[in-house]
UniProtKB/TrEMBL annotation:
Top-rank taxon: Bacteria
Keywords for the protein's UniProt record, in alphabetical order: Lyase, Magnesium, Metal-binding
Stated name of the protein: o-succinylbenzoate synthase
Pfam families the UniProt entry points to: MR_MLE_C (PF13378), MR_MLE_N (PF02746)
Domain (Mandelate racemase/muconate lactonizing enzyme C-terminal): residue spans on this chain: 142-235
Taxonomic lineage: Bacteria, Bacillati, Actinomycetota, Actinomycetes, Pseudonocardiales
GO molecular function annotation: metal ion binding; O-succinylbenzoate synthase activity; racemase and epimerase activity
EC category name: lyase
Length: 368
């Protein structure tokens, strides 16, 4: 394919309710969307970087800058562009995996649309629908939390994930167990809020039969997670630490994780995400699809990824209305706790022009 240019679009999506984690509160999601225009088709990619560098070092305006000044111009020199050619063309640039992922996805989407192949087929999906979990933020009270969890269970979600932080961990987990029983699939996510000094305290979660404890320590403290795994019986899952297939292989070898949360944006794209899936599967490590509050653009691709064979636990692929009153694509709607894997060419969805225009704050066109 020949790339004629890339549109960078900033949109602002108000959340249906504040979403609080151990690193802050999100009320509006500022998102960078890319539209790659080629001589054969157009493709879309969603950059999952947050507005501020709090989940990781990346943030929206840094992604705009690095794509504009370095990554998009670098594709001009690629003679036969396709999804597989993007990562090698950007390999000389360090980091910025979320920006790279958005660009690779837009080019891959264009390639697949041109060839009439779905993302699911390209990645190796083996299911036509995926079981869905939901991520529940830190709340002001246990009662508020129990109302929220009850609502999600009534909606059909098959797994509950509770955000935790020091001072909000054992009590909310105990309350959910006491109210909803031991059968509910339940896990927690600390977003790096603890240290090894908290190990004994975190062992206090063991009696509650959690599926996993996600990223309790700093993303660089891989050995700390291995040490924790020797102290607690709850399986340790890594998110922020797993930035590549190599990082996954090292973490598994060090005993730092028994389960892996795969987020294509965090690792540089869906092709690397599939490699991480393959490494984990080869080592008997279960994986699940993480989320970054994506619109239907990113959500469509995540649902396709979640249909691969090694995704054996429900992921954070929630319905569109978990975060947004109106999505910029046809909404993803939960059906018996599952989302259908898009079957159309590429990611299988496209933005609805009026909905996209309503949330757009800035559009830039970068010709090549
Ligand atoms: C704003 S928090 C984003 C990162 C967080 N994501 C979620 O909790 C799931 C978000 C979603 O449902 O998309 C995680 O660390 O796993
Ligand atoms: Mg996480």
């Amino acid at each position: 394919m020949k790339l004629s240019g890339v549109e960078l679009r900033l949109i602002s999506m108000p959340l249906v309710a504040p979403f609080r984690t151990s690193f802050g509160v999100e009320t509006t999601r500022e998102i960078l969307l890319l539209r790659a225009v080629t001589d054969e088709a157009e493709g879309w990619g969603e950059c999952v970087a947050m507005s501020d560098p709090l989940y990781s070092s990346e943030y929206v305006h840094a992604a705009v800058d690095v794509l504009t000044r370095f990554f998009i111009p670098a594709l001009a020199d690629v003679p036969e562009l396709d999804g597989n050619a993007v990562a090698p063309a950007l390999a000389k640039f360090k980091g910025h995996r979320m920006a790279k992922a958005a660009l690779e996805t837009a080019v891959l989407d264009a390639e697949l649309r041109a060839q009439g192949r779905s993302m699911g087929r390209e990645l190796g999906a083996v299911r036509d629908r995926v079981p869905c979990g939901v991520s529940v933020g830190i709340m002001d009270s246990i009662d508020e939390l129990l109302d929220a969890v009850g609502g999600y269970l009534d909606a059909g979600y098959l797994r509950i994930k509770l955000k935790i932080e020091p001072g909000w961990d054992i009590a909310p987990v105990r309350a959910v167990r006491e109210r909803f029983g031991d059968e509910v699939l339940l896990q927690v996510d600390a977003n790096t809020a603890y240290t090894m000094a908290d190990a004994r305290h975190l062992a206090g979660l063991d009696p509650f039969g959690l599926l996993l404890i996600e990223q309790p320590f700093d993303e660089e403290d891989v050995l700390g997670h291995a040490e924790l795994a020797r102290v607690v019986s709850t399986p340790v899952c890594l998110d922020e630490s797993i930035t590549s297939a190599r990082a996954a292989a090292d973490a598994i070898r060090l005993g730092a994780c028994q389960i892996v949360n795969i987020k294509p944006g965090r690792v540089g794209g869906y092709l690397e995400a599939r490699r991480i899936h393959d490494v984990c599967s080869a080592n008997g490590v279960a994986v699940w699809a993480g989320g970054m509050l994506e619109t239907g653009i990113g959500r469509a691709a995540n649902v396709a990824l979640a249909a691969l064979p090694g995704f054996t636990v429900p992921g954070d692929t929630s319905a569109s209305d978990r975060y947004y009153r109106t999505d910029i694509t046809e909404p993803f709607v939960l059906d018996q706790g599952h989302l259908a894997v898009p079957t159309g060419p590429g990611i299988g969805v496209t933005p609805i022009p009026d909905e996209l225009a309503a949330v757009t704050s800035k559009v830039d066109w970068l010709p090549l």
